[in-house]
Every structure is written in structure tokens, then in C-alpha cells.
Amino acid sequence: MEIGSSRPSGLDLSDAELERLFAEAALLAGREMAAIRDGPVFETAPVAEAVRAALDSDAPLPRDPEGPESVLGAALRALAAGRRSNPAFFGYVLSPSTAPAVAGDFLASAADQNVTSWRSAPAATVIERQTLNWLSQFVGFGRGAAGLFVSGGSLANLTALLIAVRSRSPENVDRRTLCVYSSTEAHFSIDKAAAAIGIQSRHVQTDAALCLDLEGLEEAIGNDRARGLVPVCVVGSAGTTATGAVDSLADIAGIARREQLWFHVDGAYGAPAAATAIADSKFAGIDEAHSLAVDAHKWLYAPVDCGALLVRDPAASLGVFGPAGEYVRVLADATEEAFAFWDHGLELSRRSRALKLWLTFRYYGADRLAQAISEDIELAHLMARLVRGAEDLELLCEPSLSVCCFRHRPAGVEEGALQDHNERLLAELQHDGRVYLSNVSVRGRFGLRACITNFRTTPADVTRAVELVRELGSCACRRS
Q: Residues of 109-131 as b/e, b for ≥16 C-beta within 10 angstroms?
């Protein structure tokens, strides 16, 4: 290759091409956000063969350029074949994104900063640490918290347990003797994290409110100590994904202090509700935790991935993840300039996850975000009232946070047949596309679960969802 001003295989676009590509992509993004506002969950029922055909999934590796029209056309088909978080999407714990958050994600991708340390990305590092502090204040964890943004609650919980193991056990301990405690309703990522680390995960039964039973927790810890095992951590749930239950965090904090355990709160879903007047009393004691997981993509209207682990003591995670290699050793005397995220987490390569939440906080302000979360909670309680008022529906537990769990219970259907009936109903609802619910098991009873985390959802959407459940449920009864 001759020395010159450009390379023959260069991938850069001309200014005109770049402007055209981004303008067309912006139009597609605008159409998609409009479809999320007004369209169904699925444009067509999600069938694997149809999705593969729409995306030409058996096509060979492209060897020649397709051109912008072909590429963007393929992107349009991919968006149309996907799932949308419309106002009646009550399935998974995943809020839709606000426009400022989408803009932040786009800008973060354009800048393409690898946020490993201050040296690598000084502005992005400052923004991340500031946003973590704002998030900590928003959810009542307090000022001055450290931590880092991660992909989501699973990695946040894993990182927290690694810190707990190092801070609450000798360095060379047999990890098979270490125990972490959580309720039977806790997210399964706690079990996954324990398995990855090589420690034992203990499940404590729940009380009448589906919260971790405090006497059961103390009994489990005592029994393990008597057997020569080493309790290291207790996990409290600040909003379980199944029912929205919030454990008694203040009481768990007291037990953790007495037993000298690390206290971690999994608030991946529910912690943002602590910012609201409608639910903040549920979260007393969250500020006593050693660490807290929060996912902004679950209930702060940011795009995936935007999880965070907040840690009260910035020094707690130092030394947990091993020394860095010589080639990344930071040669700086100033404390801020010597900061590196690799000292506090598992990842080295890290995208700028904070910018979208940083822009969201600045664009809307904390009070407006808290109000949107409050409205989601109110809508879940509206759904519960509608369920109570319908003779063919049954509430499976009291609504908590923005979750409502119920089942269709028509007259003449025996208890033993209700599970099959509701499973068939749920499958039909999900393929129908107008509303999307997920499944839940509450004290052994299969049911339908609605989790409302959408700032566009209205009382009319909730009412239509309940009416559709009754309509399709009635039709299913007549067919059976």
C-alpha cells in the first residue's frame, strides 16, 4: 500500500453520505417510537419461522456492499418483526425509553468511549460518577455512594456478592462453606451469582406478604453457624419481580449488623419507587445497606443496558478484583485522575452507560420522574380494583409497587383445571398482540402478572387489558 492521504478500503463515509444515513436512521427511530406509542405489542404473532423469513436469516455472509436503501430496509423489517413496549405491554420489567435517553445512547455510541478509567475517558468517567451519586440520592441510598454502571441487575448482584465474600471472610477460606441468604421470592440471579462464585445460596421462606420471614432468616443463620458454615451476606429484595414485594429492609439491616453480615439490597426493579411519596415508607432501611442494585432500564425509562451497583464504602471493592496489568497502570498522582473502574468491577471494556441517564435526569428533573413512577403504581392499584370488581377474576395477592397478579376464574371451572385454563389464556393473550402479560405463581397458584412501568400507560389501557382478559378467557371456556 502506497503512502497517501487515504486507504483504498477505507470505511469512512462522505459528509453527504453520513448526513443521509443518520437522517434516514433518525426517521426509522421516530417511526419506531411512534409505533411503541400507538401500535400493538407485535405487528404479527411471533412465530419463529415467520421471523426468520422476514429477516432472511439463512442468507450467506454479505461479500459486497448492499447500499443504504437495502441496509435500512432490512433494519425496518427487523424492527417490525420485534416486540414493542406499547402502553399495554405489562410483561417483563422493562420500561420504554424516553427520547432524551435514546439521544444519550446514540451520542454515547457516536463518541464510542471505553470507560475503563479517568485516563481512558475523563469526561465519561466524571459523568458516570456524578450520575451514580444522583441515582443514589434519588432512591434514598444517600450522598457519596460509590459504584459503577453494569449491564443489569444480574451483574450488579454478582459484583455485590464478590465484594461481600471478600469483606466478610478470610482470603483463603473454602468458599463452599460460605452462605448467602435471600427469600424464596428473590430473583434467581442471586442463585446464579452464588453458583458462579462457589458459595451456598440459602432460601428463606416468606411471610403472609410474600416478604422474607425475619424469624426464618435468624434461624437459618443460626443453624448454619452450628454446622460450621460461614454466613457472609443477606440479600433483601426491594421489589421482587414476581409480585413487587418489598422486604423489611430496616429489620434485615439490624440482623445483618448483629450477625456481622454484608447487607445487599436487590432493588433492580423496585428501588426507583423509593423516590415517590406513594411508596417511600416501604423502603425504610434502604440507606442502611452496604450495597444496592438498581436498573434504570427497568423503571427509570432508559434503554437497555443501564444497570448500576451502588456501594456505600468506596474502599470496600478495592482489591476484590485483583491487580491490573502493567500496560494499564495509571501514571497519575492526582486521586481523581488515577481512578479506574476496573478496580471496582469485573469488566475492563465498558461502554458509556451513564450518559443516557445523566441526560434523563437533567432533561426532566427528579420530581417529574418520580411522578411518572407514582402514576405507574396508581395504575397497578386501579387494575387490582377492576379485578376485584369482576366476578370471573381473582386477585392472587395485594398489588405491590406496580405489579398486579390475578387469574381468570370463571364459574364452573374447578380449582384443578384453573392452571391449564390460565396457561392457555396467557398464550392466547401474548399472541393476540393487543396486550402482553406474563405468568406468575403465587403460593402455588398459576396466574397472570401485569407489571406497569410505562409512562405512556393510561387508565384506559388498564381497563382495556382487563376487559380483554375476560373476553378471551370467556371464549377459551366456551371452546373447552
A: eeeebebbbbebbeebbebbbeb
Q: What cell was used for 424?
A: 392457555
CA distances from 136 to 140, 141, 308, 412 (A): 6, 5, 10, 51
Burial of 403 (0-12, 13-18, 19+ CB in 10 A): buried
What is the pLDDT, as a whole number, of residue 359?
97
* SS3 of residue 404 by DSSP: strand
Q: Collapse the DSSP code of 259 into the 3-class scheme (helix H, G, I; strand E, B; otherwise coil) and give the result.
A: helix
Q: HSE-up of 411 (CA within 13 Å, CB side)? A: 2
Q: Helix 366-388 crosses helix 459-479 at what angle (to 10 degrees)?
A: 30
What global pTM score does this model have? 0.94
Contact by Cβ (8 Å): 86, 36: yes
Q: CA-to-CA distance for 332 and 297, rounded, in angstroms? A: 35
- Our measurement of the distance from residue 248's CA atom to the centroid of its chain's CA atoms, rounded to an integer in Å, reads 21
Closest CA to 163 of 319, 295, 306: 319
Predicted local distance difference test score (pLDDT) of residue 325:
65
- How far is Cα 337 from Cα 223, in angstroms, rounded to an integer? 47
Spell out the residues 6+ positions from residue 184 whose beta carbon is closer than 8 angstroms to its own.
203, 204, 205, 206
Distance CA 31, CA 25 (A): 10
**183 CB-near residues (< 8 Å, 6+ apart):** 203, 204, 205, 206, 211, 212, 213, 237, 240, 247
pLDDT of residue 384: 98
Q: Cis peptide before 15, with omega less than 30 degrees from 0? A: no
Contact 403, 246 (CB under 8 A): no
Q: CA 352, CA 181: separation in Å to the nearest integer?
A: 33
Instruction: Specify the pLDDT at position 1.
Output: 55
**Which residues, given as ranges, of the chain have pLDDT below 50?**
none
